[in-house]
Amino acid sequence: MTTLYGIKNCDTIKKARNWLSQNDVPYQFVDYRTDGISHEQLATFAKACGWQNLLNTRGTTYRQLNEADKADLTEEKALILMLAQPAMIKRPLLEHEGHCHLAFTPDQYQRIFGL
Fold first, then answer.
1. Is 89 strand, coil or helix?
2. Which among 10, 20, 30, 35 counts the fewest CB atoms within 10 Å?
């Protein structure tokens, strides 16, 4: 089973979903905002991808945090921030055949799916 995680109105998510549909790749979409994500699941992703890679520090949500929240980030503190503000989870996150992949480019997905 292939699962794509993200936020439905994100432009990169839209591109990834279009690519999957155009290439007839069956997948389930999980929207962090509407479907939610558990601490356990997020911790699993952090272990697979690295919590620093999973935390979207380029986004507006992260940049608008006060300095105290950004200071001395640990994995646990980052997970709590991401659970509170799912927009801080880098997207898309693709789970396929037991592996997690961050971001989207057509070339990357072609390699993942062997197309």
1. strand
2. 35
